Amino acid sequence: MDRMILSIVVDDGSGSIAVTFIGDVGEELTKKDIDEIMTATMTTDTDAVIESLSQDLMGKTIAVKGKVKYSDYSNAHEMTVFAYLKKKEKHEERYFECKRTNTLAWQLDEGL
């Protein structure tokens, strides 16, 4: 069974971080399942599919929860998302709670 792995750069105007969405979390963000994307890449130019996804996500405000780690390879922090938060209420409370456990919940503008 195929799983979606979607890697984007999230930018809030003060900095950016590479963010990876795996499986259901990526499907939830794109509102497309992996079968739909796989079919599109087989029938359409892959670059066109990526461009379409990019246009759908560009500038969208999101809230995510995941684990942040430092990568020696990229020499930067990277985040793996384990929850795409649809509701943004109590955002600050969630952020501080998660920060204590080495995870972050951010509401940021995305850019690809």
How would you sum up this structure, described in words?
With 112 residues, the chain is an alpha+beta fold. Helix content is 34%, strand content 39%. The chain has four helices and five strands. A five-stranded mixed β-barrel has the order 1-2-4-3-5. Helix 2 (34-43) crosses helix 3 (46-57). It is globular. Mean pLDDT is 76; it is low at 89-112.
Name a few traits of the molecule:
112 residues, alpha+beta
**What is Rg?**
15 Å
- Domain count: 1
The global form is globular
| CATH C-level label | Mainly Beta
Let me know the average pLDDT.
76
Order of helices and strands: EEHHHEEHE
Q: In which range does the helix fraction lie?
A: 25-40%
CATH architecture: Beta Barrel
* Spatial strand order of the main sheet: 1-2-4-3-5
Ranges with pLDDT <50 over ≥5 residues?
89-112
Report the CATH topology name.
Answer: OB fold (Dihydrolipoamide Acetyltransferase, E2P)
Figure out the total of helices.
4
- The share of residues in extended strands comes to 35-45%
| Main sheet: strands, sense, barrel | 5 strands, mixed, barrel
Distance between the termini: 27 Å
What is the number of E strands? 5
